[in-house]
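Quick check before the chapter quiz. The format below is the same one you will see on the exam, so make sure you can read both the input and the output lines.
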Amino acid sequence: MPEEKLIGPIEVVRDESGYWYHPDIPEFDEDAEAYKAWLDTQGLKVVGWHMDSDLESHPYWDAGEPHCLGWEPETPPVYDWFLLGIFDTDDGPYVQWARREVTP
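Here is the expected output.
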């Protein structure tokens, strides 16, 4: 079995609706367990939050617009986080950051 390529930071170019997904993440067809297993294999810790944690008002909610333009989620304060994605969920736009866990 070939060694798994480790994912890392790349240039982020959000689409016309403000969304972006890291192109090196395999397709999991919404299989959360497979995604978690992949994150473990990658040695990644992830954090994320919904847009409503950062913004009180946005056309996404106010006018039913299907975008997250204007939302610029800040990188977590600890060094070496990189973006995994900004994507829409049933609960609204969501951002997810990752960093490689350091093993002693």
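If your answer matched, good. The chain has a mean pLDDT of 93.
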